[in-house]
Amino acid sequence: MDTVVSTATSVSRPSETDTFESVDHQGQINLVTLAKECGVKHFVFVSFPEFQGTFPLQSAKRAVEASLQASGMDYTIIQAPHFQESWLTAPTGINPETNAILTFGGGEGKVSWIAIDDVCEAISTSVKAPEARNRILKVGGPEALSQQDIILLCENLTGKSFKRENIPQEQLDTMSASEDPMMQTFSGLMTVCVNEGCEVDNTEAQQILGFRPRPIKDHLTQLVASLSSS
User: Which domain holds residue 95?
Assistant: First the structure.
């Protein structure tokens, strides 16, 4: 086996046995170790850019990146911010039952929301591109938009106003102080959208991978078209 690609995470399907520690941290490090022992030449790992604060998923990603870089194998680390399909639909985005759009702490942080298909394309190309080896490549959508920007874009696309719902900073802080690793992690990821944001410069990925992400407007057009008329 020449190449291993790992996208595994417990964030979407947590259980008593599948946790950030067992899957995202130790499970991934075990996979890196096993790949090295089996003579794998190239390991591609999907991560995200470093955000402010400390939370379980971020700690796991950083630990696996360090383990991979020290492994002696050729590696490519693809760092992608928030996925359009995951974050812009319910329960963290537009609620199709109420046509309300959720924001976090006011939603002023600009994020380069990315389509999952674009991440997959970057992964596929990185396997075949020698220049992608032993690099951390950041990939993101072609423009950085805040949640407030997204609301305005949806209203322009539909010609109607959307209801606003907001998770206040105080609630995010409570989630962060929780003993639940999932609550801590979602607080950390949501807090990115408050003010910090995550604007990605795709220049290097474009040069090495020919990376050209699709506009977020394409996803939002499909999304708002599926909403109820209520």
Answer: 3-225
